[in-house]
């Protein structure tokens, strides 16, 4: 079994030490702090309102502003004028190319760069060309973007269309030039959405319509409701050389093996610690770039885990915030290269250490500047606040599984519901004050209503302080927490595009607000006093949805037992979570509001399933390869050295002294055999799953189910043995960069 190996052959570990040497020798690179004040360069790389005002005719400016605010169409002649201004502006800033920038269902962003430069057919001279038609529409080669069966059933090709509500921006294209990026939707010729943005825009406008109608009960001046989003982005940073020395990080974005470091997050010292110089230089650098692109990045800090950080922007209108988050992730990856760092957005890159989320802070603002989820001390506003609060709770309660579906991915599966992760139960945290206020609403309002005449005071609704920002009241274990004047959906994955979640959240709230109106209006028509009717409806909603409210420890074992008693689901597997998308009630809510058709929902479901299969397949392959070709072979070489030592001891007559070494030899053999057996079985499981693969949706479902249970089932047992070997095998032989080496950047 030990073969004929020389004790010190060249192994992968040389690569590990070379990478470590490189990483260790690096210093923070000097980043010149911008000389100007932020206000002077903020948004200078965007074709924003200010720029448009100076470059467009008053008529064009008026029309484009209207289009931005109301999603109306831009006429051809105006488009030509805007295209011309855009071209002048962009070329003036060094742009050579333009592209429609969109978010296909792969999760990344996509671009196809066309040069402004063209040859004039008349005289063969070079000209710079960019017409309104090129601004409005572009045809990327769509064949390699996923369409989830849509392309078989419908017309194959698609086009991208300009989204004027998100400003065009300039991206450095590396080689000195810049590219003008035009935020766009991506649609099949037959009209089906092939991207994230299209349904999102529809959901946002559905929410606007439904919420505005509800606002009308309280304030006739409210004509528009704008959903807002501030996505806090968590990420890990590791040295570039160490990243490339870990094939699992390169291939799968996470480490499939690795023993947790002696000092992980138990000291909680990283969170409050100062930012390491290399990291700080990176942050200053990408923030400067982000601010030029009009992204309002504000806070930077360390996160709980070593090597983990967070960036949070000021909130913006949801569509813009989603675009900005996608762009920010892109930008961070590019800037990290300059600092010889790698950004990991994966939800769970390291076992035994916190994962990364993208906390979606969400609220709704009116055109009159009111945050509809901000409590107020004024009784009248309190009723409005409670109306929106209770309707959101009801929406989350009724569609908790759909929300869960919106955050389902192979990566997030390691973060939600896995053995060391919070459960995948959707619940809402309100804090003491609001919990009490809602209990009072349910139990006391009737009694109060019978006495006196001032309806609001009788409702007992005046005790909600306008500012509920008590930090002791924070619950970091809640997936969906009220945090003073907004909800924070914390369960969204770090690598996700927020669109899917935002589409679902805004859709279900829009649907719920529409129902609210439908429940309220008959009462008003029957002559019931408005405030009383509202309270009566809210009381019913609260009673029907309070099972979703949970103030306790969301990571505790008790909760896993209690949730099902309350009728709440805990959907741990991604294929099961995704299956909720195609339930009749899910399709119904999307269709009712015109967000997605059945075919579009089904195609998205299929794309997500396929993506899941691919991801687990990659992880499984990388795992098998590393286990057999790197770990087992290293362990055997080390074992061979031990065997020689044992033999020498016996030769010298030190038989007893050789015993502990023989124990080690046995342990290594045992672990190696377990690894080999499991890897072989995992490969068989993969083959079985792959054989199911067909073109029908049911085949994809079955394949994903097999990957989730059978193939993935081998991950833990294999990992367990490998991580044990890491503790035994001589550090100098170990081929994979260790956690303690990766997680502490200088
Ligand atoms: P906290 O410290 O309570 O988490 P912050 O004010 O730092 O609160 O906000 C955290 C995130 O929530 C930021 O990205 C912020 O922009 C966002 N946020 C604040 N208010 C709103 C709002 N009304 N709508 C959406 N996001 C918001
Ligand atoms: Mg937060």
Bound molecules: adenosine-5'-diphosphate, magnesium ion
Helicity, in percent? 40-55%
Unreliably modeled segments: 1-10, 447-453
Q: What's the overall geometry? A: globular
| Overall number of strands | 17
Average pLDDT level: 89
- Terminal Cα separation, in Å? 43 Å
How large is the radius of gyration?
A: 29 Å
Q: Output the number of helix runs.
A: 29
Structural classification: alpha+beta
| Percentage of residues in DSSP E strands | 5-15%
Q: What kind of sheet is the major sheet?
A: 9 strands, mixed
Would you mind describing this structure in some detail?
The protein has 746 residues and is α+β, with helices and mostly antiparallel strands. The protein contains 29 helices and 17 strands. Strands 9, 10, 11, 12, 13, 14, 15, 16 and 17 form a nine-stranded mixed β-sheet that branches. Strands 1, 2, 5, 6, 7 and 8 form a six-stranded mixed β-sheet that branches. Helix 26 packs antiparallel against helix 28. The protein is globular. The two termini are 43 Å apart. Residues 1-10 and 447-453 have low confidence and may be disordered. It binds adenosine-5'-diphosphate (ADP) and magnesium ion. Adenosine-5'-diphosphate binds next to strand 9, strand 11 and strand 14.
Brief rundown of the structure:
With 746 residues, the protein is an alpha+beta fold. The chain is 51% helix and 12% strand. Strands 9, 10, 11, 12, 13, 14, 15, 16 and 17 form a 9-stranded mixed β-sheet that branches.
């Amino acid at each position: 079994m030990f073969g004929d190996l020389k004790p010190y052959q060249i192994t992968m570990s040389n690569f590990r030490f070379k990478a470590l040497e490189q990483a260790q020798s690096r210093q923070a690179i000097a980043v010149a702090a911008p000389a100007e004040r932020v206000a002077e360069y903020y948004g200078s790389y965007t074709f924003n309102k200010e720029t448009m005002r100076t470059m467009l005719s008053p008529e064009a400016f008026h029309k484009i502003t209207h289009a931005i605010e109301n999603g109306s169409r831009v006429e051809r002649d105006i488009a030509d004028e805007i295209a011309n201004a855009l071209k002048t502006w962009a070329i003036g800033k060094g742009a050579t190319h333009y592209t429609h920038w969109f978010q296909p269902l792969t999760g990344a962003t996509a671009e196809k760069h066309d040069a402004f430069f063209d040859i004039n057919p008349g005289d063969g001279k070079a000209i710079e060309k960019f017409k309104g038609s090129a601004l409005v529409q572009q045809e990327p080669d769509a064949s390699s973007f996923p369409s989830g069966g849509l392309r078989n059933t419908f017309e194959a090709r698609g086009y991208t269309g300009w989204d004027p509500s998100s400003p065009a921006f300039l991206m450095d294209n590396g080689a000195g030039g810049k590219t003008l990026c035009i935020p766009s939707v991506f649609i099949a010729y037959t009209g089906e959405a092939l991207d994230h943005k299209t349904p999102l825009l529809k959901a946002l406008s559905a929410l606007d319509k439904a919420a505005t109608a509800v606002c009308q009960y309280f304030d006739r001046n409210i004509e528009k409701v704008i959903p807002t989003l501030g996505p806090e982005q968590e990420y890990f940073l590791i040295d570039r050389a160490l990243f490339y020395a870990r094939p699992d990080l390169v291939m799968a974005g996470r480490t499939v093996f690795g023993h947790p470091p002696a000092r992980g997050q138990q000291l909680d010292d990283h969170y409050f610690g100062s930012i390491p110089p290399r990291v700080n230089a990176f942050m200053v650098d990408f923030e400067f770039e982000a601010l030029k692109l009009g992204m309002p990045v504000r806070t930077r800090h360390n996160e709980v885990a070593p090597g983990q950080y967070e960036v949070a922007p000021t909130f913006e209108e949801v569509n813009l915030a989603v675009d900005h988050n996608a762009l920010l992730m892109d930008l961070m990856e590019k800037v990290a290269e300059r600092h010889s760092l790698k950004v990991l957005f994966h939800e769970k890159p390291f076992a035994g250490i916190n994962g990364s989320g993208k906390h979606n802070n969400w609220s709704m603002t009116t055109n009159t500047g009111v945050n509809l989820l901000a409590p107020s001390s004024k009784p009248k506003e309190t009723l409005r606040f409670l109306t929106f609060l209770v309707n959101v709770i009801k929406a989350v309660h009724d569609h908790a599984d759909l929300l869960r579906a919106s955050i389902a991915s192979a990566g997030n599966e390691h973060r939600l519901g896995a053995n060391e992760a919070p459960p995948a139960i959707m619940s809402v945290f309100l804090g003491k004050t609001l919990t009490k206020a809602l209990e009072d609403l349910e139990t006391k309002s009737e009694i109060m209503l019978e006495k006196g005449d001032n309806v609001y005071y009788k409702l007992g609704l005046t005790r909600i302080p306008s500012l509920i920002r008590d930090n002791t009241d924070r619950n970091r274990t809640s997936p969906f927490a009220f945090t003073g004047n907004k909800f924070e959906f914390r369960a969204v994955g770090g690598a996700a595009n927020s669109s899917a979640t935002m589409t679902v959240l805004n859709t279900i709230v829009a649907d719920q607000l529409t129902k609210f109106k439908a429940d309220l209006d008959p009462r008003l028509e029957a002559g019931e006093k408005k405030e009383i009717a509202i309270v009566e409806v809210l009381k019913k909603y609260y009673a029907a949805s309070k099972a979703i409210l949970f103030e306790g420890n969301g990571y505790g074992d008790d909760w896993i037992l209690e949730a099902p008693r309350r009728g709440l689901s805990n959907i741990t597997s991604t294929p099961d979570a995704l299956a909720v998308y195609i339930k009749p009630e899910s399709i119904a809510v999307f269709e009712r509001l015109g967000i997605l058709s059945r075919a579009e929902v089904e195609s998205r479901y299929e794309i997500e399933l396929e993506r899941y299969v691919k991801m687990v397949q990659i992880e499984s392959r990388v795992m098998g390869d590393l286990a057999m070709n790197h770990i087992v072979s290293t362990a055997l070489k080390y074992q061979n050295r031990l065997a020689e030592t044992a033999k020498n001891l016996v030769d010298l007559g030190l038989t007893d002294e050789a015993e502990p070494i023989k124990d080690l030899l046995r342990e290594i053999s045992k672990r190696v055999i377990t690894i080999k057996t499991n890897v072989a079985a995992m490969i068989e499981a993969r083959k079985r799953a792959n054989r199911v693969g067909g073109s029908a949706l049911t085949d994809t479902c079955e394949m994903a189910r097999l990957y989730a249970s059978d193939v993935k089932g081998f991950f833990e047992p294999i990992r367990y043995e490998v991580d044990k070997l890491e503790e035994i095998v001589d550090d100098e032989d170990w081929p994979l960069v260790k956690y303690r080496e990766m997680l502490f950047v200088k």
